[in-house]
Amino acid sequence: MDWSLRACGRHGHVTYAPDDPALRGRLRADTAMGEAWRCLRCGDFVVGEVHGSGPAGAAPIVLRGRALRDATILRLIAVFRWVKGVLVLAAAYGVWRFRADHDAVNRAFKENLPLLQPLADRLGWHLDQSGVVHTVRTVLAATTTTLTWIMLALIALGTLWMIEGLGLWLLKRWGEYFSVIATSSFIPVEVHELVEKITPTRVIILLINIAVVLYIALSKRLFGLRGGRAAHEEERREASILEVEAATVARDTGGGSPGTRPAARRTDDGPPNGDGRAHARPRNPAGDPQSNSSGEKRANRSGERRSDDSGERRADRSGDRHSNGDGGPHSNGGPPARGPGRPPPERPAQ
Question: Is the pLDDT confidence value at 337 over 50?
Fold first, then answer.
């Protein structure tokens, strides 16, 4: 699922025209239907008027891609926390109303419980061994002071979950820390309940809370995990279309501000000229004694090779003149030398 396109389909595109001309040109295009601006969320060009303009630093922060998916999940967790908070606050209100009519409720419970006995017998439900009935009897036996403390505890718990939901819905950093700490504090209590009695509901609730803690801590890089806050901000900047385009413009302009002329780079071939190109310089300058000595050595070796080749060629030509087969003036009466491709001479008969 493309979370960016899904969000643009529901809430519309987000376009912005920065004041810098170079950056503005990378976000704007001319079409047959008019000018089009690039959406900061999905990256598509949208025909129509731009939604906002101003400095690049004042552009709206638009979540896209993975950050948008994480925001959706955090807001679902926030809704779940709000539902739990509302139920707990409702229970606190019920305890407060019950505290005022404690005696009347206790009397009504004792009078009406026997009326449920025939129905319980048909269903095979033993009222005396029921956990619900035992809990109700415990609450009814509590004093007014105990009920007051229970009401205050429920109010505190409900308020805690409401604040946690608010921080997660607003995608605040403090809300993420608050959620991880608050949820982690209830995990030992849930483990203790599992030790007493294992039920599928308790197991599921424990696994959900552990998954929520690990997901928020790892995805948001809390407590220094996976690079901490610095790595989280860097990941957000890399996903921002506006910041990526601004970095591209700065790189094209040689690291300066967008719209400036590229700075000439110095190369090994010499200093740059006015056009940003480097002048060629000799690899072995005359003022370098090491390069001079190396050049002299190479020249000497080259001269030696050329003299050897010249001597060999002169020797070959001299040998050809002295080795003619007709006993010429340079044969000195000896047998002619056998040149390449000539048959061996015949010996005279004795």
Answer: no
Hey, what amino acid is at 93?
Y
Q: CA-CA distance, 174 to 92, in Å (whole number)?
A: 27
Identify the three-state secondary structure at position 323: coil
**pLDDT value of residue 141:** 79
- Rounded alpha-carbon distances, angstroms, from residue 202 to 32, 136, 209, 300: 62, 21, 11, 92
What pLDDT, on a 0 to 100 scale, did the predictor assign at position 314?
A: 53
CA distance 31 to 36: 7
Other beta carbons within 10 Å of 75: 15
For the record, the structure tokens of 267 come out as 């190369």
Q: Are 30 and 47 in contact (CB under 8 A)?
A: no
Question: How many CB atoms are located within 10 Å of the residue 69 CB?
Answer: 17
Q: pLDDT above 70 covers what percent of the chain?
A: 72
Q: Which two tokens stand for residue 113?
A: 């419980």
**H or E element that contains 145:** helix 144-169
d(CA 250, CA 23) in angstroms, rounded, equals 9
43 backbone φψ class: left, alpha, beta (φ>0; ψ -120 to 50): left
In order, the DSSP letters of 154-206 are: HHHHHHHHHHHHHHHHTT-HHHHHHHHHHHHHHHHHHHHHHHH---HHHHHHH
Burial code (b: 16+ CB inside 10 Å, e: under 16) for 17-53 equals: bbebebbbebbbeeeeeeebbbbbbbeeebeeebbee
Query: For the residues of 217-253, what is the DSSP string, one character each?
Result: HHHTTGGGGGGHHHHHHHHHHHH-HHHHHHHHHHHHT
Instruction: Establish how many alpha carbons lie within 13 A of residue 103's alpha carbon, considering only the half-sphere containing its beta carbon.
Output: 0
First vs last C-alpha separation in the chain: 110
Per DSSP bridges, beta strands 17-18 and 53-54 are parallel
Q: Cβ of 227: how many Cβ atoms within 10 Å? A: 12
